[in-house]
Amino acid sequence: FIISEDDRTALHDKILASLELTDKQKEEYKHALETVRKYRLQKEAERLARKEKHQELIWKSYVSNKLLAQLEVRKYMDHMPFNRQINQMKRDCLTLAPATINDWHVNVYDILVPLYRLQEYYVMLGLHMAADGSPMPEVDNEKHKTVKQYIIEYRNIDTGIPIFLTTVGKGCGRGKEVIQTQLSNWSGLALICDAYPGYDWIKKVGRVLCRCSAHARRDHERALKENPKGAMPGMLLFQEIYAVEEIICCHINVGTGKELHIKELAELVVKTVGFEGELCWDATKPNGTPRKLIDVSKLHSLGWTHKVEIEDGVEKLYQWYRSTID
Fold it and tell me: Are 129 and 154 in contact (CB under 8 A)?
């Protein structure tokens, strides 16, 4: 029940007067009431603070852009289904029916279609594309059940921007014709995908088709149990491929692996160019890296070592510079 603070106080005064309590007991009673009152006010303040999250008025079919954006971001970025959001908003003093949320969701989709088409346009501008299809349940209103439908992610490797496309009413949404339609505006150079044959036409139109090594490796891995001797060469090949990918995806220091102090380099330059003046040092300026030395062990493990020593390199650089100003 709801009762005002004044009525609550008057009622407790009446209760207190009807009890035969000592002065100490009365003080303890009043202290307990004050503690409960402060707690009640604190809970009310917290409730009002939570209510601020949805402070904009929702009247009939109208809803704020802020709340619509919050629903979609929580669903797709925070992975919060609508039923969880509805329960949370109910605790925050905002009660909404699931049908209302679904209607808003559909309307948001319609509004975002032009923006999504623009994103698709920029994805299709990529010279290098990645594609991966995944099954998803789709409601078939005629059959009154869910059916499997594929949604394909196309990612512009150059920018990292993705787009998710599906074609309703055409098989499972992953056939050759579907993929050709979805990529009709793509004029790039190479596409990487799994072993699905629906992409085979790409290499027939003069583009590079790269198969995902992980999918190809699976067949060899399965074959290890039945024919280890025949599958082992393929597995070793994939290990080499993974090693190459690891090399490509990491930084490699290029250098001689020999330490050289700045003073030594400066004196070498003076000697090479024939400078007869005085070499001065500004000790008021901070020092740089304490040691001028890089780790070239990875470079050497790949079979590459330097062929030009620092003395020859400075000499060649000086001669080249002179040749450009003559």
Answer: yes
Instruction: Answer for the pair 171, 138: CB distance below 8 angstroms, yes or no.
Output: no
HSE-up (13 A, CA, CB side) for residue 207: 19
For the chain, give percent helix, strand, coil, nearest 5: 55, 10, 35
Torsion, CA 121, CA 122, CA 127, CA 131, rounded to 10: -70
Beta carbons of 155 and 162 less than 8 angstroms apart: yes
DSSP 11-44: HHHHHHHHS---HHHHHHHHHHHHHHHHHHHHHH
What are the tens digits of pLDDT across the range 161-173? Answer: 899 888 766 566 6
Q: In this structure, are residues 72 and 30 in contact, taking their beta carbons and an 8 Å threshold?
A: no
In contact, 139 and 200? CB cutoff 8 Å: no
**Per-residue pLDDT tens over the stretch 31-47:** 878 877 787 777 777 66
Tens digit of pLDDT for each residue in 267-325? 999 999 999 999 998 888 888 778 888 888 888 887 888 999 999 999 999 999 999 88
Phi/psi for 26 (5° steps) reads: -65, -40
Alpha-carbon span 128 to 125, nearest angstrom: 9
Q: What are phi and psi of 147, to 5 degrees?
A: -125, 160
Helix, strand counts (H, E) of the chain: 11, 5
CA distance 13 to 1: 19
Coil, helix or strand at residue 159: coil
Q: Is 131 helix (H, G, I), strand (E, B) or coil?
A: strand
CA–CA separation, 195 vs 211, rounded Å? 6
